[in-house]
Design a protein that fits this description.
Length: about 350
């Protein structure tokens, strides 16, 4: 026992001397290995305790633990100091002059963001709220609640990126939302009616990309539900929105269209006048958006009584609108990150 006590005292002295000399994180690591790790003499002392009597263990055990504790505290404190010192040194030497390349080239808002901002201004001036929703959506919100059950052929109208589709429960399956219409459901279920909102947002479809189709694009959904709402309100709202946006009287027309979540369903066309590359004036009806009166089943799915409330809904491609507005011929340019192209807007 006496021999062990002496060795512990000697160890303690050696450790203190070594600690005094620690000057860097590398030194500290060497100190740790030698005096605190499993390979250290300290650990060997603890093993040797086993061979002593109970009384000796009671006396020497706590002493060895106190030595270990004081060395560990010293080690941790020193580690903190040295790490801070290393960080301070790095920060002092490792910095960049952010003004070096001044003046920066001036950035600008993306054309789709510019149109989105303008659309938001126009709709908020008409008392519409701007609402957001998740881009990873449940199958139920994206399809079933909008009157598109899994067996319905209308599912094929929107090629879908499935995230999870191995379960029978549409609340558990998820998709990258194929349209912003899913937010109609979320909003009415959360806040009830009356409602007057637009939802600008990104949507995804598993499409073959071409000049007018992208796999990721932006839509704006509109929903107004209240007592006594009719198609006349829809027509007035869309006409006002487009005339404000194009800063002139815009001609629109309604055609019958099919979307399972509206009845009657419509396609809205816009009379578009432009000058082609040869300088020739061109005018034509352009398909602009889907719309209609909210289907009674959709209202019921959201807990709204269709005998009391009615409403209109619409959805248009914001990316396509930006193309029309700025005369962009190929949708792929918009998200090509090409500075030459983007700096024109
Ligand atoms: C819908 O997505 C319906 N949710 C719209 C709607 C809402 C109808 C409310 C009725 C009531 P559709 O699949 O037609 O409908 O898409 C709407 C618009 O998104 C199109 O008119 C078009 O402008 C745009 N769009 C559709 N697919 C693409 C694509 N691949 N790339 C770019 N824009 C697209």
């Amino acid at each position: 026992m006496k021999a062990l006590v002496n060795r512990v005292s000697e160890f303690q002295k050696k450790a203190r001397d070594a600690f005094e000399k620690v000057d860097s994180l590398d030194d500290l690591q060497v100190f740790y290995t030698q005096f605190l790790s499993k390979k250290s003499e300290l650990n060997a002392f603890l093993k040797e305790l086993k061979n002593l009597s109970d009384a000796e263990k009671k006396e020497l055990g706590p002493h060895i633990q106190t030595v270990r504790l004081s060395l560990t505290e010293g080690f941790e404190q020193k580690q903190k100091e040295l790490r801070k010192q290393a960080l301070d040194e790095k920060l002092a030497s490792d910095w960049i002059d952010v003004t070096k390349h001044y003046p920066f080239e001036k950035g600008a808002q993306h054309p789709v963001s510019q149109i989105q901002k303008r659309i938001e201004e126009i709709f908020t001036s008409m008392g519409f709220e701007i609402v957001d929703g998740p881009e990873v959506e449940t199958e139920w919100h994206n399809f079933d609640a909008l009157n598109i059950p899994s067996s319905h052929p209308a599912r094929d109208m929107q090629d879908t990126f499935w995230i999870r589709s191995d379960q029978k429960n549409p609340h558990k399956n998820s998709v990258l939302r194929t349209h912003t219409s899913s937010v109609q459901i979320r909003k009415m279920m959360e806040d009830g009616v009356p409602v007057r909102m637009i939802v600008p947002g990104r949507v995804y479809r598993n499409e073959d990309v071409d000049t007018t189709h992208d796999a990721t694009f932006y839509q704006v959904e509109g929903l107004l539900v209240d007592k006594g709402i009719s198609l006349a309100h829809l027509k007035g709202t869309i006409h006002k929105m487009l005339s404000e946006l194009f800063e002139k009287e815009v001609k629109i027309r309604f055609r019958p269209g099919y979307f399972p979540f509206v009845e009657p369903g419509l396609e809205v066309d816009i009379w578009f006048e432009c000058t082609d590359r040869q300088g020739k004036k061109k005018s034509q009806w352009l398909e602009f958006m889907g719309a209609g009166m909210v289907h009674p089943n959709v209202l019921r799915n959201c807990g709204v009584d269709p005998s009391e409330y009615s409403g209109f809904a619409f959805g248009f491609g914001l990316t396509r609108l930006a193309m029309i507005h700025y005369g962009i011929e190929d949708i792929r340019l918009l998200f090509s990150q090409k500075k030459d192209f983007l700096s024109q807007f």
